[in-house]
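ARCHIVE CARD
Drawer: 12
Card no.: 0347
Subject: one protein chain, sequence and derived structure
Cross-reference: see card 0346
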Amino acid sequence: MLRTKLAIMFFVVSLLALPLAAQQQQSNPPPPPPPPASTAQEAQQTPPPPMAPEDLDRLVNRIALYPDPLLAQVLTGSTYWDEIPDAANWADEHSGLKGDALAQAIKDDNLQWDPSVLALLPFPSVLDMMARDPDWTQQLGEAVLNQRPDVMDAVQRMRKEAYDYGYLRTSPYDTVTMDDGYCEILPVNPAYLYVPVYDPGIVFFAPRPGFFIGGAIGFGPAVIITGAFAPWGWAHPYFLWRSHGIFFDNGPWGRTWMNRGFYRHSYARPWVRSAGPQIERHSFSRPRGRP
């Protein structure tokens, strides 16, 4: 009899404890199980989904009218999007240096970035544009790694639109040619490059009546590229548009999504860094205040 009463009391106590335990469990839910160790690595190895042609057109329209040598550096440099902000800061701080003096400063400071990023240091306005919009820069870099032929085709579509509407023409700065359906933009003098300034909302649409087409594309100041910049890809950068090739020093640039962790382009005159970290060896001009 006593054993039966004890069993009944234990059962009643258990029933009373259940709601309290449930409340405690709701207020303090158990932490989710940790993800498998390979999840982060697998995410890094998975390429982004391919972009549609119209999305690629919008992605490249701000750079599509750059001269071919500069465009080649922007496309390849964007694949190192994590290095762009620091490079933009350095270029801004040293914007007073030009030509050979700038090339010597790059060597003196033993900069650690990829040559495709170092190649953009003479163009602080371009690096500034890329650094101010890091999402765009990374998206461009991912597209170049994942679907380079589609990116190059998008550039051609944008160039043809600007050409058909009459905006893109040969100027004192660049020579514009249509070669078997492919539009090339080459500097009149390879040693002097000019960054075009234009509004994509204008040059890729039919001009309004009375609009002065000739004023739609402007040009920044001359950027002098001397032989001292050859180690960073400035010895004959060019495209083979039909085969979707990007070339530096007559060697095809072959970085892709799958080999991005170890690929290094083989330049004819490679950049050899000194042993040790990056070191600021000289004074620099005051930054222009880019946030």
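Annotation on reverse: DSSP finds ten helices and nine strands in the chain. Strands lie at 174-179, 182-187, 192-193, 196-197, 218-219, 223-224, 238-240, 245-248, 251-252.
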